[in-house]
Amino acid sequence: MQTHFLPAFHGDAIWLNYHDSNGVLRNILIDGGPSETYGEKNKKGKFEFGVLAETIDSIRGNGQRIDLLILTHVDDDHIDGLIDWINYDADAISLIDRIWFNSGKLIFEHFKVPDIVENHISLSVEDLTDTAIKDGVTFENLIKDKGIWEYKIIEQGQTIELLDLKFRILSPDEEGLRELLHKWEKKEPESLTAFPKDYKKTITELLASDAYAKDPSVHNGSSIAFIITYKEKDMLFLADAHPEKVVEGLKQFKFTKEKPLVCEFVKISHHGSKYNTNYKLLELIDSPTYVISSNGLQRSPYKQCLARIIDSKKDLSLFFNYPELSRHIFLKEDFETYPDLKILPADYEFRIA
């Protein structure tokens, strides 16, 4: 299996490809990044395809399919690239075999409560706003009645065996889903999206003044986070999940501080936000590699988050899908204090044989 953390600007778009036990090449796509990940207009006004479009064309060109598409939650930096693809490409739906997506309508049905009509606003790509739930409803409208959406809630505690893989779902829990039972408004409080950053401080300085605060984003709390097991090796994908929910999910699967999850790598939650990684989570994970998916143009990654990981794990490697970020984040003093800290190169391959 090879995992590709696509350069999806400030969002997530992850592509896994592997051979199953019958030698069939399988493809899994996790999220689609913001719109630019699929494509955008250049300075001359001409539309240019992005890395998501190129990845999809490669899969199609090799006569393969997207065996599973997972939309972790409805924030625009995870969903808009998918919406653009399905709107732009008339053959998109026919390329997908199965979709996991906890839509608004599905969640309301799950709790057997009346739906909220205001949430059901059909939009075209040109009409999209920064109201993430509208993006979610749009995606729901695009895929419903196509026979590819597994119309069931994906939630904490489930074990799903599919395509020679085992998925253990860590988030969302019932509380995270229940919190979505209202009229959706802004996707995040302004306080979590504003600048500045903390890159001028050393790791030691950040740890000395560290104080963890919870992520208040309701949408992030509904993120689908999971462990994938392939050939008895585990990989941890945390989307934008709340660490408190992931900790509870790991404990449900009997992981403890004394017997943590041993995994090949961790895709850190919420692009390295300091609100989504805490020590209680890190003590339940034993991994040599931690992945940050962000171009750094939004607030994340926080160096505060990376400092916690480095302090907790000591000997570890960090991978940035925008490798140049590490030069802006870490100071000479950081590498002197933590000589075992390694930054993986841009061409590093996440491969499980």
What does this molecule look like?
With 353 residues, the protein is of the alpha/beta class. The chain has two domains: 2-154, no CATH class; 170-351, no CATH class. The protein has helices at residues 35-38, 51-61, 76-88, 92-95, 104-110, 132-143, 174-178, 203-208, 218-221, 243-252, 279-282, 303-313, 325-329, 332-337; strands spanning 2-5, 14-19, 25-30, 39-41, 47-49, 68-70, 99-100, 159-162, 165-171, 225-230, 233-237, 261-262, 266-267, 285-286, 289-292, 317-320, 342-343, 350-351. The strands form four sheets. It has an eight-stranded mixed β-sheet. A six-stranded mixed β-sheet has the order 7-6-3-2-1-18, with no helix packed on it. A two-stranded antiparallel sheet has the order 4-5. The longest helix is centred in the first third of the chain and has 13 residues, at 76-88. The model is unreliable at 121-131 and 188-194 (pLDDT under 50).
